[in-house]
Every structure is written in C-alpha cells, then in structure tokens.
Amino acid sequence: MDFTAQPKPATALCGVVSADGKIAYPPGVKEITDKITTDEMIKRLKMVVKTFMDMDQDSEDEKQQYLPLALHLASEFFLRNPNKDVRLLVACCLADIFRIYAPEAPYTSHDKLKDIFLFITRQLKGLEDTKSPQFNRYFYLLENLAWVKSYNICFELEDCNEIFIQLFRTLFSVINNSHNKKVQMHMLDLMSSIIMEGDGVTQELLDSILINLIPAHKNLNKQSFDLAKVLLKRTVQTIEACIANFFNQVLVLGRSSVSDLSEHVFDLIQELFAIDPHLLLSVMPQLEFKLKSNDGEERLAVVRLLAKLFGSKDSDLATQNRPLWQCFLGRFNDIHVPVRLESVKFASHCLMNHPDLAKDLTEYLKVRSHDPEEAIRHDVIVTIITAAKRDLALVNDQLLGFVRERTLDKRWRVRKEAMMGLAQLYKKYCLHGEAGKEAAEKVSWIKDKLLHIYYQNSIDDKLLVEKIFAQYLVPHNLETEERMKCLYYLYASLDPNAVKALNEMWKCQNMLRSHVRELLDLHKQPTSEANCSAMFGKLMTIAKNLPDPGKAQDFVKKFNQVLGDDEKLRSQLELLISPTCSCKQADVCVREIARKLANPKQPTNPFLEMVKFLLERIAPVHIDSEAISALVKLMNKSIEGTADDEEEGVSPDTAIRSGLELLKVLSFTHPTSFHSAETYESLLQCLRMEDDKVAEAAIQIFRNTGHKIETDLPQIRSTLIPILHQKAKRGTPHQAKQAVHCIHAIFTNKEVQLAQIFEPLSRSLNADVPEQLITPLVSLGHISMLAPDQFASPMKSVVANFIVKDLLMNDRSTGEKNGKLWSPDEEVSPEVLAKVQAIKLLVRWLLGMKNNQSKSANSTLRLLSAMLVSEGDLTEQKRISKSDMSRLRLAAGSAIMKLAQEPCYHEIITPEQFQLCALVINDECYQVRQIFAQKLHKALVKLLLPLEYMAIFALCAKDPVKERRAHARQCLLKNISIRREYIKQNPMATEKLLSLLPEYVVPYMIHLLAHDPDFTRSQDVDQLRDIKECLWFMLEVLMTKNENNSHAFMKKMAENIKLTKDAQSPDESKMNEKLYTVCDVALCVINSKSALCNADSPKDPVLPMKFFTQPEKDFCNDKSYISEETRVLLLTGKPKPAGVLGAVNKPLSATGRKPYVRSTGAETGSNINVNSELNPSTGNRSREQSSEAVETGVSENEENPVRIISVTPVKNIDPVKNKEINSDQTTQGNISSDRGKKRSVAAAGTENIQQKTDEKVDESGPPAPSKPRRGRRPKSESQGNATKNDDINKPLGKGRKRAVVSQESPGGLEAGNAKAPKLQDVAKKAVPAERQIDLQR
C-alpha cells in the first residue's frame, strides 16, 4: 500500500460534498470550524482520527463520503493552527488519508501537496520527546508514513527536494537514545524509500545525511550518526554514485563551493570507509591522484586519511587496492617532513592491526630509520617498539635491527628512545618470559647490545646503561635471592665484550665511590689552601662523571657546600659509600638525602636531579654481603647439579666458570662483602675443581678479599696455604701467578711461605723437560718481583746459569716447518713457551730490583736486542719455526717496553735498542703487530711509558692492514686526549711538560723515522713519501686543534732540530742529512696543513739530549734538503705542473679517510715475496688505483681470514717478474727489496704463502734467500747473490756488525742492500757512559 503509482487527476473529487451541500463527518462528530473551542476541536478531531484509522482502501463508499472532510482538513485553518495537539491530530488524519486514497491522493494542487508534506514533516519533531503523552500519536504518524511511503508522492513535485531535505533534517535532529529500534527502523524505511526510489540524490540532500558523520556532529548526537550509518549501508548501491560525484567535484575539480561539507571531505571519507568501503569504490582512485599533489599540506591531509583507512583493524584496503597502497608507501619518502612523520606514525597501527603488511613496511622504515630528521628517526623507534610491546610476533628481526642501529644514533634523544625501548622488551620477554622461550630467544641479543653501549664516550650513554641495568636487566627492587639469580644467569649468558662492559661499569661506579669518599675525607681535614685545591680537583673529577659536566660543576660545588654545612647529610653519605652498607640501607640513604635537598616550592629542581644522578651511581643497589652469599649458594647448586642451569639456557660448567668470574670482579669492587666462612668454604671447594679457570678465579678472589683470613678465620688459613703452595709449584701459569700474589697479599709470614716455594723450584729447573718449566718460571719471576730484597741475589745465579745459558741460548728441539707465521697457543712448542716465560722472568726480576748496580739490566737489554736482530732465532741455527720466532720477537719487544716503564731502566735503554723495539710494530706477523700495539697503548694511557714511545705509533702508517692503522689512530687520539686532560686537571703537572705534553712527541718521531731501516736514500721520492705518511699519521691527530698555538710550537721544534746533530751518530754526515731531510718533510707537511704555524711560538721547545746534541754556537742550517719538485710530489702525489703556482699547498687526503698505499706491491701480499711489475711512471697511478681493493684485508694470518675483492692467483706469480724493478736495473741481482719488512696479505689465504712456496722450492733445490725484515741483520757483501744459496743455512757470527751500505756502491749492490737496516749490532755497541738522561724523566 503506497503511492508509487502515478496519481491521477482528482478534479472531480475536489468538489464532492454531501447531498445537502455540507461536509460529512463521522457519526457523532459535529462540524469542526473555528467557531468552537480548542478543546472541543481536539475532542472532535480525535473521533475523526479514530474513523480514518479504522478505514481501509476497499471502503469505496466511505472514501467518497469523507472526501470533502479530507479536503477540509488540508485547509490553511488546520495547517497553521497554533495548537500543537490540533496539528498532530490533523497530521495523523492526513497520513491516514494518504493511506486510504492510495495510490491517488485527494489533493491535486502541487502547492497544496507541498504545504501538506511540510506540515507533516514539522509535526514529526514531536518524536523527540518520548515521555510526552502524545508520543504514541507521533509514533503512529511516523509508522503510517513509512509503511505507506507517502512521501513518494512528492517525486512529482518540482521542489520536492525541499520537502525531503526538511524531512531528513527533522528525523536526524529528533533521533536520540531514548528511542527504541522501531522508531529508528521506521525512519530508515521512510528515508531509504526516498533515496532508492527517486531519480537521484541531490547534493543538499546528501549533505543532510553526511553532516551527521562529521566528528563534531557525531560527538553531539551519536544516534544521528548511527542512523546515517545504517541508512548509507542500506542504500549503498544507489547513493554510491552521488557520493562519488561529490568527492569528484571537491577532490579532482576543486569545486569546494558545491557543498558546505567540502572542508570535511577527508573526515567524511574516513567515516564512509568505516561504514562500507563500497561507498568509496570510485573515490579511492581520486585519493591516489591527491597523494601526488604539489601541495605538501594537501598530501599531508591525504596521508593522514589513508593512514587511518589502511591501519583500521578490519580494513583490507591494502589488499583490495594495491596501486593505492604502493602509492601511499611512496609517501614514506616524501620531501615534506610532516608527511614522512605521519607515514611513520601510521606504521605502528598498521603493524599491530595488519601483521601481514610488515614485509611491505620494513624497507620503508629502514630508509626512515636513517632519515636526516631526528623526530622521524625517533618515531621509527617508537613505532617498532610499540608494536613489539603489544606482541613480539608483530615485528620481524629486521625491524628490531633498525632499533638496534639507532642505539648509536648521533642524537641523544634517539639513542635514549632506542635503548629504553629495547630494555623494556628485554624485561617483558626475557625477564618475565611473557611470550615463552621462543620470544625470549628472539630478543636475547638485547642484553649484550645494551651493555656494549657502555663503550661509548658520552657520559649520558654510560649513565643510561647503568640505569637500564639497575631497572631492566637486573631490577634492583627484586628480593636478594631473585636479584642474584637474575645477575648470575645474565652474567653467564653475556658475550665477552658485554662482560667487559659490565665489569667496567662496576669499576667506574667503584671509582666514583672512592672519589666521593676522598671528598668526605677532605671535609674532615682543617681548611687550608692545599685542602681547598685538592677539594676543587676532586669536585671537577666527580662532575666529569655526571651528565653535562659544565653545569654539573656548579651543582657539585653547591652540593659540596651543603655537605660542609650539614653534618647529618655527610654522615648519611658516608654510610652510603661505606663498604658495609647493605642494599636496603643504600635505598634509605638515597631517599633521605633527596628529601633533605628537595624544595617543595620548586617542582623541577635541576640541582636535586644532578645529586640523584650522583647518588644512583655510587649507591650499592645490587651487591652487599647478603647478595654475595646468595651468589655463592647459586654457584654451589651449579657445582652439585641441583641448579636450574639448563632451564636458563646455560650449561653447568659455564654457570660455574661465569659465576666465579663474576665473584672475582665483585671481589675488586666489594671485597668486604666476601668476609664469611661460608663464602670461603665454597671458594676452597672451587680450588679443588679440575677446571683451571675456576681455580684461578678462586685464588684471585682470595687474593682480593682475604686480608683478615689470617686473624679471623684460622681454619680457612690452614686449609688454604697448602693449596696455594701446590698451585704455585704445579698449577697452570696463571694459577701460579695468582697463588704467589695471594700469599704475598694476605699472609704476614709471606717471606717464609715464598721461600718454601722458591727453593725447591729453583733447584729443580731442568731445560730438558720444558713442559715442566713454565709454571716454575712464572712463580720464580713473580716471587723475585714481589720480594726482591730476599730473592734478587739467589735469582741472579739462576738467571746466569740456567735462564740465559741453558735455556735461551740453546735450541733443544726442532720447530715444525709449516710456514705459518703464527700458531694458536695450544700449538706452540713447550720449549718456546718456556723461553717466553724466561724472558718475562728476567723482566720481573729486574722490576723487583729497580736498580742497575750489577749491570744486569744492560746485559738483559743486549740479550733482548740480539733476539730482535736475529728475528727471534737467538742461536741462528735455523731449528726454530717461523711461528715460534714470532712469539719470541713479541716477547723481546714487550720486555724492552716493560723495562722502559721503570725510570732507572729507561735511562739505560739506548736509542738503538729503542728503535729495535719500535720496529716490532712493523713486524711481518699480524698478531705480533696487533698484540704489541695493544700493550703499547695500554702502558701509554696509564702514563707508565715515556713519551718517546708514543712516537712508535707513527710507524703504523706503514701497516698494510686498514684495521691496524685505524686502531693505531684511535690509540693516538686516546693518548693525546688523556695527556691533555691530565695537564688540565693537575696544575702541578706543568713542571713535567716534557714528559706529558703530546706535542713533544714530534722530535722523538722525527729521530725514529730518520733511523727507519727503510729510509736509505734521502732523495728517494718513494721513501720520502713513506716518511711523509708516517709524519702525517701523527701530525694529523696533533693538529686537530691549535691549542696554545701548538702548530707554531711543533714547527719551531722541527726547525730547532736542524740546528742540532743526531746524538746517536753525531759525526756521520749521511745520518745527519737524513735527520734534516725528515725535518724538512715535517715542516713541509705542517706548513701545508696550517696557516697558523707561522705565528710566533709561545715558548722555545726543549729537545731531548738523549737523541740530539746541543746546538753549536753560530751554527745556521737554512739549507733545504728536499727540492721544490719533491715537495710538490709529496703533497700532491703528482709532478709539479708547469706554470702553476701554489701547487705545494694542495691539501693531502687524510689518512684513514682515503686509504694510502705505500708501494705498489706491498699491499698485495705481506708474505708473498713478490710485487707487481711496474715502472716509475705508473707507480703513483697504480698506488691510487689499488688502494680500495687492497684495503679490504683484515689480517694476514690463517687465524684472521680476509675478505677479498680481487685476487691474483699465487700459483701464477713469477717470483722474478713480479718484483719491483728500478729503472736503472736490468738483472735479477739489481732487484731491490720492496721494504725492510714483509707486508700483510690482502689476497686469499694467509700470511704464510711465501713460506709454503719456499718449502716447494726446497724439493728441487736450495731455498731462495728470504727478504730482509725490519731490524734484521743483512748478509755481508761477501755473501752475495752468487753464494747466498750455499750459505743460507750457516749461522751468522754473533756480535758481527751490520754491513753499512755505501752510497757509491755499484747499482746491483745498492739495490740488493739499499733497504737493509743500518742499525749496529747492539751486542757490540757499548753505551757511552756520559750519555745524557732523557729530559722526559
């Protein structure tokens, strides 16, 4: 029953009345006119309404009878009646009339129909009040209109749109939460029929629906939003075209005037998509167009919209519309920063709601994790961490890898977010195990990575790592047993570098505690100038350990004042740092100190925050006596096999060993906490275990913590002594060392104890059984060092009769000729290990005596130098293997360096011996160079070695391995910064500037390079280029800053050296010429790199008299020892261009940035005694071309495999053709050795290829002569090329002088010997008694 059929003209009906000409009313209803009262009118209308309600369409007679009444009710009198009840009743009647007379309405006038429907629409507003007495009639009206679809009549009206708009607005405005579902259903029926059965939806009508979706309206009336939502869902097929047209007008054509909702277009798209994606089938391509807009703000708006569409939980837009998805992903690389930022923010929701899209997002997030904008990199981390915290399965390893990378970001905010995010993931999935073992395994690397960050220089990074460790890795608020279990298994599962970082963290905290303890001690002393100065220095040191040291200085000074004024505060702080402070006491102390310093009127108190940082660093929140006891119990369980080791992913052996290592570290920082019988009993049990490492750690713990054992725990003492004796005699070398030191540290009768070990060991030494020598030699060496007064004299006979004569000067076994330059420790022969320990024993013996009254040190130094000259084969019987020779060279070089740390021995080390020691850093074996450099750096940073030893790092410029050069440069940076910082922090250090100021290394470096065995001809451009590289390697670091006009100071030093002579060879003109040449190269480099070097030097530098003579009066040396053309070649690498000025000042490429290759063949194989065939005209070019390929090498020996870019097969190398041939040489006898040392292999295989080649040659004939090594004695001229093969196996006479190469020698001889070391045989060269003491000391 509806009005969908076309209504017929009703002209005849309009005039129909009753027979007597009056309007017919239902029975009992009197005439309704304006003459009656309102109440009466309402009463009569109710009866009319009842009549019409009861009528149906089939009552033709009644329809005809009441037609005049129907027309009468549509009169203006009723439509504009002021009484709402009257209007309601009339509207109900009219609705029934439309129902009864359907499909033909009794009203033919379009204007009348419009008035009627507008009238009915107005009455529908009454639906708003559900508590109204008339609500049922309003509901009846709505129901009737919806059922009959009465409004469909309006389709024939020209301005029907006005009626529909009014209807829709009315219905949306009246709907509320008090309406039941029937009301909503009838409204939907009414509106959907209009939309679906009409010719189309106008923009205004569409606006009346869409306006309810706008967030502002949505929030005001949730029911109208729900109504619009259901309506759109119901009419999607019909209304979709209208919606598409609207968005096309606004988005594509830019006609925002078509609708008032144009400015809300993106909000509407979002809501429509959520309602039904089919509503936007034609709109999505328009969004792709908008994503490519030139307007950044417009792209941003579209990105925000699509982020919501793609990211919503139930959206499958990415799968359904791949082109749009790919276009959207492109916005991750948008040029507009806010667009990229919005894209990154979207990724978090997308990962959580659509894990299947993670693969698509990964590559784009990778690029954004390196975005130049800090905020974007930060949000990438937040995005990934947020998703990972929701569910770890949502992020793949690659995404977590991006966060890992950002822990090293250049910006602190990004680093902090990455570190904290990873820490939260570790705590959630590893510590709490919220997602099982698989998830814990996935993020198990986090603990190592976070601790590795402690290696960074920034104090902020270090402090954050400490905070993360205390809150996330091992939460300090756990109960002691749980906390220690967490620490125990964490320590056991860390990688070696993380363990070192954790140990360093405890060490730094302990050091800061000691600084604060010393500060408190200064407060107890009477005020004086010295006290104030010491206190100021201590405050500066403490400030350096806090964030933003500049501001921290002021806060630390203020805190120091408070400490001076408040005795209670001092006592709290003393309790906090006392060795006996428990974790619970520490927590109370920190809170109490913070409470005292808090200011209620100042909510943000930077001073208090800084003090809290200090307190958190020094408070023992993890370790106390109770904690150590818990750790020992855990270790005991591991020993007994009752622990949860396997469940924690750690083997019992690893748990025990790591547990002991952990206790060993804590014994340094918290020794007092170990003092209990229970703890020591457990350690004694560990001493009896077969694991050598465990026993060694246990002895060291006793050594660090057992000072009161003798007095407080006699039972432990009586058990411990025999075990220590046994370890010192028959334990491993490390155990023996620790046992001797333990006895010396904790027992009062140590002389008796040590004598009981010394005497039987010294009598039982037997060189024929070297495997039983190593431990006794270690013990004897340490005993003689710790108790020199008692054992120095007895040791002298042992040294003379056994160590030197019987052990070092004899080769009892023949080494394995495998050609290797280095072998693992377990493959080294016992005899060589014994010789290494014998060398160490000599050093320890001398270090214990600390005097040279017996001239033993001179003899030892001559012995060590002879070992270096003979390449490690002291007897020169050729019985020792190459790898064993490497071990002995390293031992000899390290021994000289160790002796140099003692002032009395440093004074007697001759320049020749120093140079021999320095050349070890250019050894042919990679491991020798590596270990020697590490030992050198370690001694220098502790300021143990004289400054001249820092000059040795200049020789690292010649190292063929890029990583070694980079390491050396880092060592230089560290050393220089430490020395400068030390001078700043210690005002009294100015008196020792000669030994501290880094710039004073320049004269030592110049002298060392002048005596470089490779520097044989002062005018050879290639050799000068090597010298320049070595100089620049050091000068580049020194000249980073021009502190106190240091550039001019260094220039002045080089100029002053030219006014002196070489103290080592003052009468040799050739040697002095080389010295002056190196000075000119240094001046050339300094002048080319600094415009400030021409200023006046602030002070006249002092040159070390050990290396340079006093300048003679009236001596002037203004000669230039390098030509102008050579200068240009050195600085540019190219010949001087004709007619071009200023080429000398062309900047150098910085070492380490663009790798520099010293010679053409040197980089291609350090131990392949061959080089590429080049002529001088192509040398420089190939030097540059080969640099990149060569620099890929990491090391040269078998233990250090190399990454290869291009490799020349070794088999095809002709040992003659591939040697570097000088332009004036035509025979094999004229072949010059490439350098005085062998280079490292950057090709496949190892450093020992040459050695293997030699072995193959041995099968068919005598071996070819080996290439001279740096520091090795050359063959005499009589042993020329013709006789080398015959005499190769004959040992050279000991003490024989080096052959000195004559400049006038023939070409062949000069080429053969040009790069042989000129150092004299140290064993024959006596030290002049009148030699001056080095000014450093």
UniProtKB/TrEMBL annotation:
<dbReference type="GO" id="GO:0000785">
    <property type="term" value="C:chromatin"/>
</dbReference>
<keyword id="KW-0498">Mitosis</keyword>
<keyword id="KW-0677">Repeat</keyword>
<protein>
    <submittedName>
        <fullName>Sister chromatid cohesion protein PDS5 homolog A isoform X1</fullName>
    </submittedName>
</protein>
<feature type="compositionally biased region" description="Polar residues">
    <location>
        <begin position="1161"/>
        <end position="1180"/>
    </location>
</feature>
<dbReference type="InterPro" id="IPR016024">
    <property type="entry name" value="ARM-type_fold"/>
</dbReference>
<dbReference type="GO" id="GO:0051301">
    <property type="term" value="P:cell division"/>
</dbReference>
<dbReference type="GO" id="GO:0007064">
    <property type="term" value="P:mitotic sister chromatid cohesion"/>
</dbReference>
<keyword id="KW-0539">Nucleus</keyword>
<feature type="compositionally biased region" description="Basic and acidic residues">
    <location>
        <begin position="1321"/>
        <end position="1337"/>
    </location>
</feature>
<keyword id="KW-0132">Cell division</keyword>
<dbReference type="InterPro" id="IPR039776">
    <property type="entry name" value="Pds5"/>
</dbReference>
<dbReference type="Pfam" id="PF20168">
    <property type="entry name" value="PDS5"/>
</dbReference>
<dbReference type="GO" id="GO:0006281">
    <property type="term" value="P:DNA repair"/>
</dbReference>
<dbReference type="InterPro" id="IPR011989">
    <property type="entry name" value="ARM-like"/>
</dbReference>
<feature type="compositionally biased region" description="Polar residues">
    <location>
        <begin position="1223"/>
        <end position="1233"/>
    </location>
</feature>
<comment type="similarity">
    <text>Belongs to the PDS5 family.</text>
</comment>
<dbReference type="GO" id="GO:0005634">
    <property type="term" value="C:nucleus"/>
</dbReference>
<keyword id="KW-0131">Cell cycle</keyword>
<feature type="region of interest" description="Disordered">
    <location>
        <begin position="1150"/>
        <end position="1337"/>
    </location>
</feature>
